[in-house]
């Protein structure tokens, strides 16, 4: 992906030049322009790679199809022609969903203000409101900066007034979610505006709707993200605590899971959100007390063939295992064997290998009894197989090294069996390949009883020292 940027007009002019100066047909002209800019390291992800529509008879400038639709929508809104607004909203939404480049071009040309005006015009007309909010969601997808305070207020007010309407609630929550991804200020503004009880309330109110439960759970999770690179310190931790302490979020999510025992996609989403809320020891324990651990283990067993679900459940188990008492509950529930099975079953999947090793690593930490269970269940061998399968994946290497270290740090009897599995060579290779693995690999080798080569950075000399 290139790092340089160009304007849409620059690309369009290059295409037009290829057509007029070099007599290329339109498709060839676009291909040539793409090749030309990409060879110069230009990022074209936000560029519409198509030929603009010809100029109209009145001499109007050439425009891309989505801008022509936007013009039609703007005229319909200005004329308060509700039937035409409805038709143009559907067309515009479909075009926005095709690709980010279309949404970006529309966003750069005033689409948000037109769509916001359409939302206001639709007030009181439920069907038109649905179409308008679908469009707002589409234009905000990947462009959270477009939303302003008036848009935030409109969304919050709609979610309050139409809380009993599942479809409008779903449409509003999708807008909120898109507006908060990678945008810390929007998250903080929505939380201050009272969005958290609206999201948990939607899950309770529409607990029989898979779409509402899944989307509201996802929106809650987004409130705990720290993904806006423009902000050095976000409120992710504070938002997680508010969801749990002020909005009974753990109970709401776990109760919701009971209605979808056969719906792995909903349960996976709920697991992912629970993992983001496991920020305190008492929260981890509460998840177990409410029955959350039981549904996670059952879901892992039932969905072992579905990698996306497996990854989310492993991540959740890893998160709640931060509590030492919960570690024992997880092992007693039989999760250890399932985690090892998940790693072995999805050995080609680096994310599952990483999360599986990390979960076992947490279970082994400060718990010699759990280490016995993990060793008996083949956990060390699975981790080493993961290292062998993914030598270039630093996250896999790091988590596997930490697991090995935790297994032997208080149970030295495991050192020889693990060494016989080929651990020393794999860990040494990880240390040599990945700078980020150096400390954990060195610690694992030391606790295995291996000789560790230390780099004396201040002299440039190397020495060997039995650790």
TrEMBL record:
SMART domains: ARM. Gene3D superfamilies: Leucine-rich Repeat Variant. One of its GO terms (biological process) is hematopoietic progenitor cell differentiation. Keywords: Repeat. It comes from the Eukaryota. InterPro entries: ARM-like (IPR011989), ARM-type_fold (IPR016024), Armadillo (IPR000225). ARM repeats lie at residues 291-335. PANTHER family: ARMADILLO REPEAT-CONTAINING PROTEIN 6 (PTHR22895). This is ARMC6 protein.
